[in-house]
Write a structure and sequence with these properties.
Strand content: 35-45%
Radius of gyration: 32 Å
Structural class: mainly beta
Distance between the termini: 25 Å
Low-confidence stretches: 477-485
């Protein structure tokens, strides 16, 4: 860190700062040393900034600043000789796209790989082997030698300028700020197919060539699926935000102050300057232009069709594609339809940014403070305003892999030998990741009102009401960030689609189980010829209200204390509610009629009513006296300090789930592979926490869902985990040794009162099938009411039993010598 301040004159001063982290580049051992070791290159970051302040007069001040952050966000590259497949006999490994590993010379990655000296990079081509999957029968599977998907860098520029004017009781301010970001990153979002390919050698009962064991399949070249991205794709992502503001602080009287203003926002989309992404437009999709997909067929006059006789059939002629072609069912028939049906590339008739935000948005702000007594001992405060959020770049980066830039091919149930011989390879209906084209800005109204008061004994109390209402926001996953997995699928088969007669597989025998004979998912999708369409769509809302209390006592007369208590009144919204669509014949989509009821039923987003944090420090009273005895006693008991932190609050909300062993997948229960049914609640399940570790809730209150579900069997977050009540204590003493030296003795006791708090539960009710929705196969108790002896360990716990707990009491002794 380096900082320079320069007072150029009485009116002008400037300061500059450079913050930098300069790290060495060296090899690092992998999970299997000598096989997947890593090498980090250019792992440094720099953040320079400059600020200038100029006083035009005693009442007018100009301020400008510039800052930059340059960050190489590099995941290390695997760097052993074995990373080059040619070094151990796999140089001619058959690939669907043999040159997919060629890295364009004008890319950031090209330069980085060359600087790293990676053995897998030869003549501009990445020669890593594919990723391998080995199936369920192989434990401790070897690691894959992957090309990391964030060998990237980020560079940001932030420029701001403002003018402040003092006008009597007014302090007015106006300013403008420009934020610019550039991020270089390859296509490789979660769930995407890499350019080096993925080969699944795992056991698969639907594969007619399967040996039943992954390693045996690999030895024979047999795979259940082989997928590969056609080429190496690197995006150059930028955004620009320009915001201006006008505000005024008006000291209306000695007791009342008002703050008011408005922020004017132009939030530019985050987009790829190479214009590689594309978007999907339902109103541009035409059924007459959709590619045809291979249909299921059978080479034997037997029903159901034996696995070995399943084939793919050309829908135009009914002609068989031959033996071992069942893996092509649901893939695109070459030279049929328009592969870009409804898909438009950025800048080609749509905005170069691939989606749009409103040009201008206004965010008003208001606040006040009122000193009731005039002595600053009882103050009322309040504020509110509208704020706009910028979505994370993770919502956009996967768009670079959309057609026509990206293309994924998949072969199922075949052999490497057939690929090497130029065997069948086809294009899978493409997976798309899009951002809703005409989007609104994710927005939040926030407000608060409260009182601050001085109390006796050097203490103060702050009590406030705090609320927020978010709208036009993005849904989120378990991590708190919306990923492609938690996005909306615009091409999800409608509820009940798998029940329709036209969607049944003719090679399967008729079944009384709904959806059991439905065709593959890609044949059910309403936009034929396209796979999943993950849409990041700002259309959700949330509401949060709470009372927040803070008590603080300054250190005086030997003790200090503090308490923070948040009482959440409600936390609701529709982010837990899946979006169900109805696809119309003209390609347009509309919400399912069940949607409002689902939104209401699932509106509880997981509120924790109480969260408490308290602390104290107590300095033991000193023992004094002139006698030798009192001096000796003082030497032992003086200068000790006791401190503690209490963590308390309501437990975390959760839900019970179900799992059917057979005939109970999504396609059976709702008629759509995408839409979930929910567990059925038949009675009072209890609170969700119990002193009985084997029964945290009433398991008898639950049963599995039935067929023809719309996902409305039960609400969200109906159970609540055990409340927190943990006290951590510490006692310490510092002994002066003279000459600026001291010795500190400290004993920490965590969870001092040894509170037993369960924090994990087996929440999945395992059932045989929807025909017996109350027959539980993972009961914690036997029929006679005794514990199941096979389920006494956390890893084998039955439905409703605790599987984890907060750590029990632990203690540590610390000796610290300071000099």
């Amino acid at each position: 860190m380096v900082r320079v301040d320069y007072q150029a004159s009485g009116k002008f001063r400037v300061s500059g700062k450079l913050a930098a982290q300069i790290a060495t580049s060296k090899p690092m051992p992998g999970t299997l040393p000598g096989f997947n070791d890593f090498y980090q290159k250019l792992n440094s970051r720099y953040a320079p900034s400059v600020t200038g302040v100029y006083s035009l007069s005693t009442t007018t001040i100009l301020e400008t600043s510039w800052g930059m952050n340059y960050d190489n966000q590099l995941n290390p590259l695997v760097n052993n000789d074995v990373t080059n497949r040619c070094n151990y006999g796999l140089c001619d490994f058959p690939l669907l796209f043999p040159k997919a590993g060629v890295v364009p010379t004008d890319t950031w990655d090209y330069g980085i790989i060359k600087k790293t000296g990676s053995p897998f990079f030869v003549n501009g081509e990445v020669l890593l082997p594919p990723d391998f999957a080995w199936g369920s029968r192989i434990a401790n599977q070897p690691p894959n030698l992957e090309y990391r998907n964030n060998i990237d860098f980020v560079r940001t520029h932030d420029v701001a300028g403002s003018v402040t004017k003092l006008m009597g009781r007014h302090t007015a301010k106006a300013g403008i700020q420009w934020d610019h970001m550039l991020k270089v990153q390859i296509y490789g979002a979660s769930g995407s197919i890499p350019f080096q390919g993925i080969v699944n050698f795992g056991n698969d009962s639907n594969n007619p060539l399967d040996t039943g064991f992954g390693y045996a399949n690999a030895a024979l070249g047999i795979f259940s699926s082989f997928s590969q991205q056609a080429k190496f794709i690197e995006g150059h992502w930028i955004y620009d935000s320009i915001e201006g503001y006008i505000q005024d602080n008006w000291k209306l009287s000695d007791r009342l102050t008002l703050d008011y203003g408005v922020r004017i926002t132009n939030q530019g989309p985050n987009y790829d300057t190479k214009q590689q992404p594309s978007n999907f437009f339902p109103n541009k999709w035409q059924a007459s232009q959709a590619p045809l997909l291979y249909l299921p067929g059978c080479s034997a006059a037997t029903l159901p069709c034996p696995v070995a006789n399943r084939i793919a059939v050309d829908p135009r002629t009914g002609t068989s594609l031959g033996t071992s072609t069942s893996g092509l069912v649901g893939t695109i028939v070459p030279n049929t339809g328009a592969l870009l049906n409804g898909i438009i590339q950025a800048g080609n008739g749509i905005a170069k940014t691939n989606y749009t935000f409103p040009g201008i948005a206004f965010g008003p702000r208001f606040g006040f403070a009122y000193d009731v007594t005039g002595a600053q001992k009882f103050v009322i405060r309040g504020a509110g305003g509208l704020f706009f959020d910028r979505p994370s770049g993770q919502y956009q980066f996967a768009q670079a892999g959309n057609p026509p830039t990206g293309q994924v091919s998949t072969v199922q149930y075949s052999t490497l030998q057939s690929i090497a011989a130029g065997g069948l390879s086809t294009v899978t209906p493409p997976l798309l990741s899009v951002f809703n084209y005409d989007s609104k800005l994710p927005s939040n109204w926030m407000w608060n009102a409260g009182v601050q008061m001085a109390l006796p004994w050097s203490s103060s109390l702050d009590v406030s009401y705090v609320g927020t209402h978010g709208y036009n926001i993005l849904a989120y996953g378990a991590s708190g960030l919306m990923t492609v997995e938690s996005a909306v699928d615009l091409n999800a088969p409608d509820l009940g689609a798998a029940y329709l007669q036209r969607n049944q597989d003719p090679t399967l025998a008729a079944s009384t189980i709904p959806g059991a004979t439905a065709v593959k998912t890609d044949l059910l999708r309403p936009y034929r010829g396209i796979g999943i369409i993950y849409s990041s769509w700002p259309r959700f809302w949330t509401q949060y209200d709470s009372i927040q209390t803070s008590y603080n006592r300054r250190f005086a007369r030997g003790w200090q204390a503090g308490l923070n208590w948040t009482w959440s009144l409600r936390s609701i919204g529709n982010t837990n509610s899946p979006l169900h669509f109805i696809h119309n014949a003209d390609g347009s989509i509309s919400d399912d009629p069940h949607q409002p009821a689902l939104d209401k039923l699932l509106s509880n987003t997981g509120n924790r009513p109480h969260v408490i944090k308290a602390n104290f420090v107590w300095q033991f009273p000193k023992v004094g006296g002139a006698s030798a005895g009192m001096k000796s006693l003082g030497a032992v008991v003086n200068d000790w300090q006791l401190s503690g932190v209490f963590t308390g609050g309501s437990g975390v909300p959760y839900d019970a789930r179900y799992s059917y062993q057979s005939n109970g997948s999504n396609v059976n229960l709702t008629g759509s592979p995408n839409y979930l049914a929910r567990i059925v609640v038949n009675g009072d399940p209890g609170s969700g926490c119990s002193s009985n570790q084997y029964k945290q809730f009433n398991t008898a209150a639950y049963s599995g869902p039935a067929y023809n579900s719309v996902g409305g069997e039960s609400g969200a977050n109906l159970l609540r985990g055990c409340s927190l009540h943990i006290m951590d204590l510490a006692v310490s003493r510092s002994l002066a040794l003279g000459g600026g030296r001291s010795l500190q003795v400290r004993v920490d006791v965590f969870n001092a009162f040894n509170a037993l708090i369960y924090n994990a539960v087996q929440v999945t009710e395992q059932l045989n099938s929807p025909a017996t929705p109350t027959t539980v196969t993972n009961n914690q108790y036997l029929a006679d009411g005794t514990l199941n002896p096979a389920r006494l360990q956390p890893q084998t716990a039955g439905f409703g039993a605790a599987t984890g707990a907060q750590p029990l009491r632990t203690a540590q002794l610390q000796l610290r010598f300071q000099f």
